[in-house]
UniProtKB/TrEMBL annotation:
Superkingdom: Eukaryota
Species for this entry: Parasteatoda tepidariorum (Common house spider)
The protein, known as: Maltase-glucoamylase, intestinal
Gene Ontology molecular function, alphabetical: hydrolase activity, hydrolyzing O-glycosyl compounds
Keyword Nuclease: no
SUPFAM superfamilies, sorted: (Trans)glycosidases, Glycosyl hydrolase domain
GO biological process: carbohydrate metabolic process
Gene3D superfamilies, sorted: Glycosidases (3.20.20.80), Golgi alpha-mannosidase II (2.60.40.1180)
Lineage: Eukaryota, Metazoa, Ecdysozoa, Arthropoda, Chelicerata
Family in the record: Belongs to the glycosyl hydrolase 31 family.
Length: 543
């Protein structure tokens, strides 16, 4: 930004920014820029500021006493757009369109949209009335921060198109999210709008992802991030994450490593900290730290097809992506108080280290069969605690018996990963059966489910006697790219006996395309090169 002003960039110190963004796009990477919900009301350092001039002409700013309410933020004196005003939509679209001509962003991060204010209420203060000073105690011991409802935000008697700020304060971010989502749908046509918002409200998940806000680099805040993410899934905002390694204070190397391992399994994963804290990107801690973090991120990328499918189900069925154990095992009272283990969907159990100096985790396993994701071996049958020592600094991941996870060989970006072979992780349950689902589309287009431009694949596994069969069935819409996706490998767990023969669609697999590990009882298939839009009938024969 130039002088912290929205819809500007510092062309003096960052003159090559547009070229740099073009280079990122050539490498298949995306760019998200930040917007604060304010427009600088003074023109210092710039003779022409369209965001202010057009906004004044359209009359789209929040008012108080028939004048525009003036607060203070990073640019200095500021006005606040009224996102309930119908005229703000063409205004916001115009500003984003004009700015994108110079900075070709792919998504928008809406920050400080509570809305935040560096002064209380406005530069002129707030009127003494029952909206700004209600006749009741609010918050802890009858006060919020300094005892005022307008503490570090705008006056409660400020006027929006739909009413007083007192009535819509908690909805300000929601209205901005709605407008921004629709703006991106217009200016990047055909693409799924990517909006991240710090302020949300139930229903915001239709438009935006969510950051839990500026946390501290402490173990307490690492731990509290997990219930925060689970709660927002309940609110219908599944694409959510905390600032990995913390936003404020200086993080220790151990804390940041454990947080990176946990954060790799936030639905929204990003490392973000204050300008005034020391660097906490992985490279700042050295090569060994980078290697440890890469293991977690590599595993996240391998599991992206499963995560993507969970988001599809959240979109179409309203289910959660990240969920507490008690949602899957409500009759198991031991799960009711578990706050620091959680699930991706019904099948992947995530058990991070959440305390300083620990190298192992007492993992609680609900009833069933549970498999080590990395090795494929059975870890626990039946419910109970199991002390799990982390291998090579990895986070504990266990797959629930009875499920099949779609996976993929990862690459360094999601766009490159999409060109990699798909796989299946088969975790048979107590009855020797397992099932799974894969939703796949082009990854960027808008409303692919509604327009039926996708692939939906079901996988089923059943073992009976001396034979096991894995079958796939699929629904294919108008999505020709699906014919370029193929299965390359599979991991099939709980195989007590080495197979004597393996058939793929009635044709035997050569010995170089499968291996069997007696100790872990895992069968691994590779070099399959089987197009995903052709049926799979894999038959495993035992003596």
């Amino acid at each position: 930004m130039s002088s912290y002003k929205d819809f500007t960039y510092d062309s003096k110190h960052f003159q090559d920014l547009p070229v740099f963004i073009d280079e990122l796009h050539e490498k298949g990477k995306k760019v998200i820029i930040v917007l604060d919900p304010v427009v600088a009301s003074n023109k210092t350092l710039e003779s022409n500021y369209p965001a202010l001039d057009v906004g004044m002409n359209r009359g789209i700013f929040v008012k108080v006493n028939d004048s525009y309410l003036e607060g203070q933020m990073w640019p200095g004196k500021v006005y606040y757009p009224d996102f309930t005003n119908p005229d703000v939509r063409p205004y916001w679209t115009q500003m984003c369109t004009e700015f994108r001509k110079f900075v070709k962003f792919d998504g928008l991060w809406l920050d400080k949209n509570e809305p935040s204010n560096f002064v209380d209420g406005s530069l002129n203060g707030c009127g003494r009335n029952s909206l700004n000073y209600p006749p009741y105690g609010v918050g802890v011991h009858g006060s919020i921060l300094g005892g005022k409802l307008f503490e570090k935000t705008i006056c409660m008697d400020a006027v929006h198109s739909v009413g007083k700020h007192y009535d819509i304060h908690n909805l300000y971010g929601y209205f901005q999210s709605n407008v921004t989502y629709r703006t991106l749908a217009i200016i990047i046509p055909g693409n799924r709008p990517m909006v991240l918002s710090r302020s949300t409200f139930p229903g915001s998940g239709r438009f935006v992802s969510h950051s839990l806000g500026e946390n501290l680099s402490t173990w307490d805040h690492l731990r509290s991030s997990i219930p925060g993410i689970l709660n927002f899934n309940l609110f219908g905002i599944p694409f959510v994450g905390a600032d990995i390694c913390g936003f404020q204070l200086n993080v220790t190397q151990e804390l940041c490593l454990r947080w990176m391992q946990l954060g790799a399994f936030y639905p929204l994963s990003r490392n973000h900290n204050s300008l005034y804290s020391k660097d906490q990107d992985p490279a700042s801690f050295g090569n060994e730290f980078v290697k440890q973090v890469n293991k977690a991120l590599y595993t996240r990328y391998e599991l992206l097809p499963y995560l993507y499918t969970l988001f599809h189900l959240a979109h179409t069925e309203g289910s959660t992506v990240a969920r507490p154990l008690l949602h899957e095992f409500p009759r198991d009272k031991e799960t009711w108080d578990i706050s620091y283990q959680f699930l991706w969907g019904p099948a992947l159990l995530i058990s991070p280290i959440v305390a300083e100096g620990e190298a192992a985790v007492d993992v609680y396993f609900p009833n069933g069969i549970w498999y080590d994701f990395y090795k494929g071996m059975i870890v626990k049958e039946g419910k109970g605690l199991h002390d799990t020592l982390l291998d090579e600094g990895r986070i504990n991941l266990h797959v629930r018996g009875g499920y099949i996870l779609p996976i993929q060989k990862p690459n360094v970006t999601t766009s490159l990963s999409r060109k990699q072979p798909m796989g299946l992780f088969v975790a048979p349950g107590e009855q020797g059966t397992a099932k799974g689902l894969l939703f796949w589309d082009d990854g960027t287009s808008y409303e692919t489910h509604e327009h039926k431009t996708y692939l939906l694949l079901e996988a089923n596994y059943q073992k009976s006697g001396f034979k096991a069969v894995l079958r796939t069935n699929f629904t294919l819409g108008t999505f020709p790219e699906a014919h370029n996706v193929y299965f390359g490998y599979m991991t099939i767990c709980n195989q007590p006996t080495k197979p004597t023969n393996i058939l793929l669609n009635d044709l035997p697999l050569n010995n170089d395309r499968w291996t069997y590990d007696k100790e872990s009882q895992v069968l691994r298939l590779q070099k399959l090169e089987h197009v995903i839009t052709e049926k799979v009938e894999l038959t495993i024969v035992y003596n």
